[in-house]
Amino acid sequence: MKTLLKAAVAAIGLLSAGASLAADLRGRGVLPPAPELPTFYNWSGVYVGGQVGYSWGSDRASEFATAGRVPLGRSFDYSPSSFIGGARLGFNYQFGAVVVGVEGDIEGMNAAEGRGDLGGTVRVRQDWQGSVRARLGYSLDRILVYATGGVAFTKLEYAYVSPLAGLTETINSSRTGWTVGGGVDYALTDNLILGLDYRYTDYGRFDHVGGSAYLGRTVEHEPSAHAVRASLAYKF
Questions:
Q1: For the chain: N or C, fewer Cβ within 10 A?
Q2: How far apart are CA 130 and CA 214, in angstroms?
Q3: Which range is the signal sequence, renumbered to this chain (predicted)?
């Protein structure tokens, strides 16, 4: 019995000594501080910025007889291309690693090209384009990978020339289409965001019924375009 009592007293003494030593060490600041938890970038917020890039298009012009829309066996492809530049405005909201947003942009360009022969020539010019799109992305801290899609709009100017008759007719066609693509954003700082993206845009098919130079002929157009852009934005 005495042996058990002595062992219990010794154990209590050791525990008391350990507690006193730990308290003493804490008091002297020997224990290291707890590490700080890592902070991750938050993509939520409004941003505004600028963009520059390059656009290359495709437009097939196919000719038909206006009466009965009989194919005339004449079609040619041309590819208007241009450097582009403009502005963008958007909003992102992040929950977890998923980022959803909406973005609009408008940009100027100088795309022009023509194709044809002595039977007739078609020339196209495009001065501006824009879009309003939804975005869905996945955040890897300061890197955001996303897909985007929405509505695109532009104005195309076509000139139809009949070299033999010396006649020209011109139309301006405001077009609305769809656009899809994707990109990568990188947060250089908490406010500055660098981006790179690609988009494909399709403006559908439409007809021009000739009135003077192309009297009796109808031209079907199928305009579309590819574009790559680099951007720099400020997030508020």
A1: N
A2: 30
A3: 1-22
d(CA 112, CA 135): 30
CA pair distance 96, 89, nearest whole angstrom: 23
Q: What is the pLDDT of residues 155-206, one digit of tens each?
A: 999 999 999 888 999 999 999 999 999 999 999 999 999 999 999 999 999 9
Nearest to 177 by CA among 219, 114, 130, 123: 130
Angle formed at CA 159 by CA 153 and CA 161, multiple of 5 degrees: 160
Point out the least confidently predicted range of 14-18, 96-100, 117-121, 125-129.
14-18
Residue 36 lies in a domain: no
For residue 138, tell me if it sits in a domain: yes
β partners of residue 162? 167
Q: For position 61, which CATH number holds?
A: 2.40.160.20
Q: Cα–Cα distance between 206 and 78 in angstroms, integer?
A: 16
The percent of the chain in helix, strand and coil, each rounded to the nearest 5, is 10, 65, 20
The first and second tokens of residue 132, run together, are 């309003």
Answer whether residue 211 is part of any domain: yes
Q: Is residue 195 within 8 Å of 145, Cβ to Cβ?
A: no
Which 3 state secondary structure label does DSSP give 118?
coil
